[in-house]
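Page 37, continued from 36.
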């Protein structure tokens, strides 16, 4: 891992513009397997936003671009809750690609330094780790490492340091790895966590010093378009030991589809698993959010797509799901709140490009641990483009509860960025043109439907 230590004052853009991206043309009316405004893509890039109560700011990153171009820029900014304004966003890096798989993620340490992990899609391009020059500031960063990783998920646990979950491509297979660091400057060698068949996708979250991961499996033959099964593991010592939900030690790397981390054998049921989020209930038990589908192609024939939750009760996995939407890549976030209320914010409602990723955003509530869900309100409506990939900030402030982008889902378009408050009663669009160094976001979607 090459290490650089130069701090650079970075350029800024005079507005917020997300990247448009597509993957796998489908030669049908839906145009692609998935596509759209993917500045907050993908669900396996975690986290993209972080609320720092010490300074009253929600820091966030996204895949940006120059208007009229398809050139991925690694962007960093924040929303200042005290002033209600956003600064001009920082251009951290021109990634030299239009591939949204290279989107960044961020994490804050206990001293307030902002860390950005710039991903790569496989091994063709380098990946980077950056650290802000000053705590709680984004004007200058230094490059800590130039290396290679994909689907980054860094977690800083106070008093223990970083546990960095990520994917490494080996002979075209996506294998899960971890490495750790006490200070972010020196890192252990990457260690394999799971390498079953053709690999995995994962989502993760931290609770105190615990870091949990939920992942699927890409069978051989079939690969990522046949992703299936659901697994769960966690660590409380930065990856040195791993346990399943039952608390049993698990020897890693996992190499067989049948293993102690298995939550449910969806391969036997002919179901595909699309992971969305991971959270913990009031008792500290993991709750996984995912979508089930019968096929990878866009369109109605593989429906219904069911939004599922798998919650560990302390004795078994309780698996439920009643919400439906129309794309495997409809992606939302799961908040587990005080008092036991569960809240999903995601694009469950049909959008202008039906059966493509995203749609209109809605808020769903469950007061019985996912057994039943009630749509509280639809928070966007009458949109020209689909809204996609609602992301949950770490320690989310009620005024910045989910963060997402929009874009035409079947052809290149501009892409704008949004956030909403906790109830979904207020939605703001980030300014695309700024007349000065800071500006308020624009309130949008008045009269949202219940």
């Amino acid at each position: 891992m090459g290490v650089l230590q130069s701090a650079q004052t970075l350029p800024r853009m005079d507005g917020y513009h997300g990247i448009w991206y597509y993957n796998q043309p489908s030669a049908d009316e839906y145009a692609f397997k998935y596509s759209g405004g993917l500045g907050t893509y993908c669900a396996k890039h975690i986290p993209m936003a972080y609320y720092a109560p010490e300074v009253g700011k929600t820091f966030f990153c996204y895949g940006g671009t120059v208007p009229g171009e398809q050139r991925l820029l690694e962007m960093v900014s924040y929303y200042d809750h005290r002033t209600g304004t956003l600064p001009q966003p920082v251009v951290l890096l021109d990634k030299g690609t239009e591939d949204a798989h290279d989107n960044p993620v961020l994490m804050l340490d206990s001293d307030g330094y902002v860390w950005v992990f710039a991903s790569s899609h496989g091994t063709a391009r380098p990946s980077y780790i950056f650290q802000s020059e000053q705590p709680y500031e984004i004007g200058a960063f230094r490059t800590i490492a130039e290396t290679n990783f994909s689907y980054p998920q860094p977690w800083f646990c106070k008093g223990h340091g970083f546990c960095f979950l990520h994917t490494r491509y080996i002979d075209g297979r996506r294998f899960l790895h971890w490495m750790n660091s006490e200070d972010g400057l020196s890192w252990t060698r990457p260690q394999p966590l799971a390498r079953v068949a053709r690999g995995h996708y994962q989502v993760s979250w931290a609770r105190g010093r615990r870091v949990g991961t939920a992942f699927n499996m890409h069978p051989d033959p079939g690969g990522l378009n046949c992703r299936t099964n659901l697994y769960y593991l966690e660590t409380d010592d930065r990856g040195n030991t791993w346990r399943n939900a039952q608390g049993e030690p698990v020897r890693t790397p996992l190499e067989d589809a049948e293993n102690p981390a298995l939550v449910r054998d969806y391969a036997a049921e002919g179901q595909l698993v699309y992971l969305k989020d991971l959270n913990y209930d009031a008792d500290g038990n993991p709750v996984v959010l995912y979508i089930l589908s019968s096929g990878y192609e866009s369109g109605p024939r593989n429906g219904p797509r069911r939004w599922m939750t798998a919650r560990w009760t302390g004795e078994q996995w309780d698996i439920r799901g009643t919400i439906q939407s129309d794309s495997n890549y409809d992606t939302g976030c799961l908040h587990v709140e005080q008092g036991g209320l569960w809240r999903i914010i995601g694009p469950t409602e049909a959008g202008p490009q039906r059966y493509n990723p995203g749609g209109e955003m809605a808020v769903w509530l469950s007061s019985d641990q996912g057994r039943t869900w009630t749509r509280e309100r639809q928070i966007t409506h009458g949109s020209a483009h689909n809204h996609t990939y609602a992301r949950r900030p770490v320690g989310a402030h009620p005024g910045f509860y989910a963060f997402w982008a929009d874009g035409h889902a079947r052809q290149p378009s501009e892409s704008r960025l949004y956030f909403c408050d906790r109830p979904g009663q207020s939605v703001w669009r980030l300014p695309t043109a700024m007349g000065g160094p800071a500006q308020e976001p624009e309130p949008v979607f008045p009269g949202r439907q219940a």
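The chain has one domain: 7-444. Flag for discussion at group meeting. The chain has a mean pLDDT of 96.
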